[in-house]
Amino acid sequence: MALVVICGQPCSGKSTAAACLADALQAVDPKPTVRIIDESSLHLGRNQSYADMPMEKNLRGVLRSEVDRSLSKSSIIIVDSLNNIKGYRYELWCLARASGIRYCVVFCDTDEDSCREWNRKRGEMGESSYDTKIFEDLVRRFEKPDRRNRWDSPLFELFPSKDEIRESSPVIADAVSYLTKKVDSKSRDVRVLQPTIATQTAHTTDANSLYEMDRATQEVINMIVEAQSQGLAGAVNRISLGQHLPTISFFLEAKWSFSSLMVSQDISLKLDFCHLIKLHTFSVYYTDICFFFFCHRTFTCDIALFQFIHLRLT
Fold first, then answer.
1. Contacts of residue 10, Cβ cutoff 8 Å, sequence gap at least 6
2. How does pLDDT run across 85-95, given as a tens digit for each residue?
3. E strands along the chain, which residues?
4. Residue 129 region by backbone torsions, left for phi larger than 0, else alpha for psi between -120 and 50, else beta
5. Sheet holding 75-80: strands in order across?
6. Among the residues of 186-262, which ranges form H helices?
7. pLDDT tens digits, residue range 240-289?
8. Helix, strand, or coil (residue 249)
9. H-type helices in 101-206, by residue range?
């Protein structure tokens, strides 16, 4: 449904903002499934996680993996962490795009002096706080979000040092509206990210399917070679792909000489075909005909033909 990235300096009010946003979302009818992912939920300590760069890199990796596992079309995930590096926010944005869900950033814009004071008070009260050295290092390396960047947009800004964060805060209300508003053809202010080929997850294929695919593709090549031999190296306009598949009418020029293809070219054709269909849930039953049209477009026509055939068969 959505991914919300809470961003801000250490001790800037991020956890308060995340809690208020989660409570406000629970007041919406129907109630969405909301989950907050932070260091404490993964049993990670603040000072230990940011003690050095390898530990910090490990923390980001653990958080990113947990977010990736949790994203779905029916839940709202709130990432309550520093998220202080723009490259990391871009990675989270890519996860949201791959899942085809909404995305936004909530920025707690708190001045450094207020953050230092709140961190000091937390330590005095025995609550979880940052060591001074770690705190100053994180403040220095913070990369402020910019709404002009797609991975920082839409950007909802809170000012905890000036205004108390509540469920009824206007910015929280705007974020809730964006995350829960129904999307239709008239919606212009809500954007649902669309996955691309680069971000789609490849479907897993078991060993038996790979064997059947290899067998079917080789059969197609053998049938084309046989059709050419029967045509005495001339043009061929009909070919049968097997007992349970229809005979296909087409024009196969004489220069289509599969018998003259080297083994390496044969393998290359099959590998290219496997790469093309690995992002789709494919029935082995249709491998024969789809591989034939793949070969056909390789020599004579556009890839759109293969995509059209795939859509018609699946």
1. 46, 82, 115, 119, 130, 135, 138, 139
2. 999 999 999 99
3. 2-8, 33-38, 75-80, 102-108, 155-158, 236-240, 247-252
4. beta
5. 33-38, 75-80, 2-8, 102-108, 155-158
6. 207-230
7. 655 555 555 554 544 444 444 444 455 666 677 776 666 555 555 566 66
8. strand
9. 112-124, 132-141, 170-180
